[in-house]
Model the fold of this input.
Amino acid sequence: MKFVKSIADFSTQDNQVRLPSVLFQPMAADDVARALARVAMGPPANGFVEIGGPDQGRLDEMARRELAALKDPRQVIADPQAYYYAIAVSEKTLIPGKGAQLGQTHFEEWLGQEAKQPSTPRKDVAAA
Done:
């Protein structure tokens, strides 16, 4: 889920983060590693294995909450014309399908851990 801030960083212009308000299901890095290990050690999948976090929400709202937890002053704006890493996305592009392997770390739990860690200030954002 650390990449939620990276998404915000990529989508920032003039201290505003413009993101589409589409469904999003981030997965903690430790959960991703466990899922990859299960797939690598398991029988051949003969196709795709979808993974995702246990919680689904709106991309703009999750980014807003993470930046607030990090005391990042940027404003997150839900913009239906905004892109996700320069790619147009639909309502369900960023969520896994049925039968996906879901991680165990909930967004709230991860957000609490993230807020406790010292943050690295952005170079292009003035301190509040």
Summary: The longest strand covers residues 16-19. The chain has four helices and seven strands.
